[in-house]
Specification:
This protein has 6 helices and no strands. By secondary structure, the protein is mostly helical. The protein has 2 domains: 58 residues; 64 residues, no CATH class. The model has no long low-confidence stretch (mean pLDDT 83). It holds the Pfam family Sugar_tr.
């Protein structure tokens, strides 16, 4: 969901929910065809084993990298995304630089609160 635009987040969430339901139906079909719980276990393990290598190659989301303040990897990922979308650097880089300046300004003005100050803010 983090890799979709805000206009398509609802569609992506609903699509994931529908695919989950279809997956449950497929597992039920496998259970009916297998007739043996150990065979069903190995079939399910094989499908999970096919998905796990994909997760290794899936990049972190830009939102996650921004929240962790990993700006070096964030910029590299944004360049890859812009290249894939056939966008010039002039389309996105000024906005990214403004975001970086605002982030450093926020961090410089932020002071560390003590536990009692945080508790007082909450109450």
């Amino acid at each position: 969901l983090e890799l979709t635009s805000s206009a398509h987040t609802g569609f992506a969430g609903n699509f994931a929910l529908v695919l989950f339901t279809i997956g449950e139906g497929v597992v039920t079909l496998f259970a009916y065809l297998a007739k043996d719980w150990q065979l069903l276990k190995w079939i399910n393990t094989a499908f999970v084993g096919l998905v796990i290598p994909y997760l290794y190659f899936m990049p972190e989301s830009p939102l996650y990298l921004y929240s962790k303040r990993d700006f070096f990897r964030l910029e590299a990922l944004l360049r890859r995304i812009a290249t894939a979308n056939k966008r010039d650097e002039a389309d996105w880089y000024p906005v990214y630089q403004e975001l970086r300046r605002n982030q450093s300004f926020i961090l410089s003005n932020q002071k560390e609160l003590t536990f009692l100050q945080k508790a007082h803010q909450i109450l």
